[in-house]
Amino acid sequence: MKLTIIGCTGSFPGPGSPASCYLVTAFDGTRDWKILLDLGSGALGVLQRYVDIKDLDGIFISHLHPDHCMDLCGMHVAIRWDPNGWGRERMLVHGPAATADRMATAYGLPLEEGMHPDYDFQHWKSRQPVKIGPFSITPYPVLHPIEESYALRVEATEPVADGSPQTSVLTYSGDTDSCPELIEAAQGADMFLCEAAFEEGRDDGITGVHLTGKRAGQAATDAGVERLLLTHIPVWTDINTVVNEAKETYDGGIAVAVSGVTYGVFSGSQLGTPKSLPTAPVSIVRSAPNREWPGTKTRNPRR
Ligand SMILES: [Zn+2]
Ligand SMILES: [Zn+2]
Q1: What is the pTM of this model?
Q2: Distance (Å, rounded) from C-alpha 175 to C-alpha 229?
Q3: Which candidate, 17, 113, 187, 195, has a CA 20 to 30 Å from the CA of 258?
Q4: Could you say which of 3.40.1690.10, 3.60.15.10, 3.20.20.70, 3.40.50.720 is the CATH number of the domain covering 2-285?
């Protein structure tokens, strides 16, 4: 599985990145399947540097704050008003129950028709996996001040060189404060893409909204994840502070999401480290990360 960061700035777009949007790709033995986790403010433009939007197989929305869903409005225009015709099925959108109405309201469309001609809206059911191509995506309800908010556990099963299937796991926290459901969602994940919007000390008066670096690290340790990729850091939060906090509570590899970077998501227990993959399948070799993860010399001993 391959994760490309389209947007990772917390709460609203920053000068260097749109708000939340992650392109996830996996190979089913025939073709690459491409899905989005969130499509937040400003993401639609940058997204087109990395993929033809007509090649997307579905969009999976964690919750309905604008920094996670608002570019569905722009995508609706791209689908409905392409002078050459969209030429595809309606775009699959999985999200909270209010997604269709919220988008219609945002655009000023009548609720009844709304964006239904463009999107096949489906609703999450807590802990019920959604299968699409090589992916299985399971939503876990998390702690955030909005009616429905989910962490998404994405499992991708891809064939390796001998044709046998191997599964890798990416968990995306969505927006959340510490909660047992987040640990459940991230249990043993090969990569934990986790928000860290708050700072210890500065934001102690606000609970039930976001994680700090320290709380993200603790969740990574409690869930026994292989690697921690911090994200959703707003422009007013210092990245070094967040990383140093995470190091206090997690001793595995930590990195910070950067817009435009692609990360390989590997099943460590099945394939070993990315550096020693002589017999790995083509799809996974292509996914090899192009940067080293600090502190990944040894696997997380607390798994
Ligand atoms: Zn957010
Ligand atoms: Zn939010």
Answers
A1: 0.89
A2: 14
A3: 187
A4: 3.60.15.10
